[in-house]
Amino acid sequence: MATLVHHLASPSTYKDHQNHEAEEKQREQLLKTTALYVGNLSFYTTEEQVYELFSRAGEVKRVVMGLDRMKKTPCGFCFVEYYDRQGAVDAMMFINGTKLDDRTIRTDLDAGFVEGRQFGRGRSGGQVRDEYRQEFDAGRGGWGAQIAQKLKEAEESRALEQAAHFHPVTDIPAGPERDEQANGAVGGADGAAGSQQGAATSATKPKRGRDEDEEMGGDGKRRA
Amino acid sequence: MSSYHRHPSFTSQHPKAGGRRYNSRGQGHSNGHQRSAAYGTSDLESRLTALLMKVGDRVDSADPSVFTDQMTALVDILLADLDGSSGPHIRQVFARCIVEFPMKTPMYATLAALINARVPRVGETLLKGECLSLLQSSLTSGDWRATKLLLRFYAQSTLTNSLTLSSFHALVQPFVQELQSISPSTALLRDRGDALALTLLQVLPYGGQPLLSTDGLIFTVISHWMIRRVEGSDQPIARSLPLLTPYPPTQDSSSSLEPPYPVVEGIQGWYEAVQAMIQKEERKEEESTMTDLDNSSKPASSTQSSVSILLQPHVYFDATLTKATPVNWGDQEEKEESDRMEDASIGADASLPAKAISTTLPSPKSVEWWVLHDIVGDTIDLYECNRREGLRLLVTLPEQCVSGTFRPLQIPLGRDPLDEDESEEGDGKAWRLEALILQVVFARLLSLPSIPSRHVVAYSTLTSDLMRPQTRFPLVYGKAIRSLFSRLGSMDLECSRRLAEAFSHHLSNHTFYWNWTTWADQLKTAKEEGEDEDNRDASLESVRESQKTFIREAILRMTWLSYHDRIKSTLPEDWVGQGPERLIPADITSRPILTASPSSPEGSSDPTSIPGLVQSLREGLRLRKDLLVVEKQVKAFIHPESPELEDGMAQEEETRHRRIQARDALFECILEHGIKSTSHMLGALERYLPLLRDLGVREDGDAGKGLVDLTVRYWGGHGGFLRIVLDKMVTYRVIGAKEVIDWVLGQDGSQDPETGVNVYAYYYPWEVVDSLLDRAVARVSRYTRARIDAEEALKQDGLRRAAELNGTEAQEEDIPMTSGQVELHTAVREAVEGKEWAEKEIKDFFIPSLRLFLTRMQSHLAHSGQNTESDRVWVTLRGWFREMCRRFWRVIGGMLVTLETIVFMGPEIDGRGEWNPRVKQEIDMVVQFIKDRQAKVLG
Predict the structure, then answer these.
(1) A19 inside domain
(2) ipTM above 0.85 for this complex
(3) What pTM value is reported for the model?
């Protein structure tokens, strides 16, 4: 009887819909494969970092970085191909679920890289998961593509709306004279303070020194 | 609702589905007895399997009523099916559970006892059937762990009144007889005897006092073996070769954070611990005999395992079990044994009180220490393929032990994790599980002579996963690392490298946070002490250098996993910059200008000038121009349309010179292309490889050496990339492995002014060499496997053809070979040729490496004097040499004659013609090690 321990190097239930091989054939490929899909990478993770981490599990033949179909920039996944299967199995056991660039990466046995698979399949060019992502993820380009698109559209429409309703000022106001301000004609939020300050004229008010600055705090607010 | 549905494990649909409601095919679970194609078991069987696997998972020794209810319910469920069609499956799973859950041996023994008490016939089948078969097959296949665990189960069964003591003796009789008759005359027999003795030693404590003291036969035989083992063999049990003992054994048993030596497998340690335990039991027996004079009651310990920390769940069922009839397959009935349970007065609270356990940490001389290390080690090994499950079992180990054995893992909310819980020491919460697990992990990580390189990442991932919030794991890990850091001076170089690799990976999983300033202060103080002429201590200097190398390498590996600026920002300022005291350069982005770079823009338009060629090559690489186009440009450079030189020799010389210039320019441009990424460089290399070869990259060793120098000069500041590039260049056969080995071992220990790299200040140059040697060795086994596969396929094909010809007049030769057969014959031929070539390559790599090592060690000692331990270059060279011999002892073992010839011929560089005694000592030690391994493994 085989062992009762579930092996972590078992392929997931993911099915590549663009792989047109028969299901049985695909299963056979997965049993022999030396390739891994690596997901949840940061867009800024480099090939060399991936190489360094995964070569600890076996001898890496090549790393194929996943690219945004439109921009041709990394979009958060890659394929790692080992020279032998044991390397792929070991990576599934020991590297899957660990962190690279502060992100928990996910690996899965892959039937094998074929040209074209390095590109994201989302509508915007990246991965599908980034298309519908609701959270902000700084390591993966900020908002999900659809939200980003909505935000962009909202920004554009706001700009358009603003442009439609905004009437530029043609007569630039000169602003009140100082004396008027000092006499409390224009008060601050605390009118009393404003009128007290107004008691000193610009001519008699001593220049604020460094100590006073410090007492006031760097932000100009008086400390308690 | 039946008890089956009440069981807490009921929600788990599939033993391997981790509690998901979907089976492995993602189709959702099916009802009833529908059979699952994936596992060949019915749904019911799957559920029963899950129940068996979870036996005792939630036992609370303080309130065992829930546990006893669950066990009783489980017995009901199992009894309903054990007699049916699912019986064999359940028994098989039961046997597998025993060998896959090392900490639950008492649980399974109790379950079997309960079944036996209820229906003796079923109980007997359970103990005799699949469990015995598995024991037999484990012995046959040399699976000593499974053998040990099954025997432990049977030993425990003697306590639960489900197996007679005579039956257990009958079971171990073959072991005892063989151990009595075996002679430790050869390495193979020694190993066999050790394995038998060790297995028995590991089993005995589970049988408790009755097994140990009934007649003492088993232990007596083991004792005789130990005496004969020491007297009759020149091989001591505890090896004393420096090659194998990098650390002094732990002297201070009170500190749990000391590295866990001696190794867990130590037979001597087990022997002494069991001997001490027997003496203790004997004392207790004497005392109880004295007490018996006053009151005639038997001690409760007669039904308890001698491993006092393990929970003994059978005591909760004493009323049931005392009435049971134990299974007996011994030669004679042992009435007194069957009476034993009846006489014993066991209460429900018979589990050992916390006060009975030492309030200090377990002593390495106690059997508890050995058993706990054994259980944790077995769990780590068994669950290598599923570290998450292994981790779950490890952190729930306290549930399988007597309440109060371990301190709680969780730190109460609001309490600072950094606060030591010394105040708890007196309240019975004695041991720390964190320390125990990390001890075992570090013991495995640093064990010698070697571990598979993949295990380094396995152990570092395990420690990373252990760092749970609100526990003391991070604190204990930090202490362990600091403790090991202080021992780096005496640590084997290979162990230091493994530790640096694991440490860097660990930190990369925890935001690279580490308090470096403590180490910075230590190094500073050590430096100041070293500068004091009066108190100059070479050994202190050596320790400091080892520590610096470790830190440098750990930081370097972190930068490879992250990026330079990020790591730099976390380090003390003193460490960043240029100079011997700096551990990491301030900047790694600056690279040298290509030697063939255009010096002036004017010349860059002329395709026959170097600047022009470089310009066009860069352009070609950037635009991925076709090989033929670039080839044409290069040829235009090599053969410029210039007035013919009158002298033919001069013409030839000029062409040769220009070819070398073109080759270097192309190679440098490819290296430069790697700034974008490794794939860019490899893509360019693959595209223009024929041209590079045409330009003579492999013409001679000088060409290769030049290219290695170019690579190192260009990428020397980025060790990680350099490692990849050198490796790939060798794979593509642009440069030879020998040139790389020459580069690493040809250095004299000072910083190379050309490349800016001092190879002996790092570990990674050795890793480049190690990888090349390893690959050469792997190639031979790959070809061997390919030949075996092809020959097997041919054999099968021959049998099939013979079957087809059977009954016909035709001879096999009359039928032409099919294309498949031709392919198979070709595959066999290629595999044979490939293997011959790979074996030759091994010789080409290893013999020069051995020679280079010895020569380098000899020449270094000739120049540096004899103060070797404080000499970093010597320590590094020696460490690498030992590692090579340990790792590749099989290969080097086949070259011992060559090695001895090299030794006999004497050092080439020393006019005296004599080996330095230190070098000779290393050679002798290595030869002895290899011969010992050969004798041990190959017989």
Answers:
(1) yes
(2) no
(3) 0.81
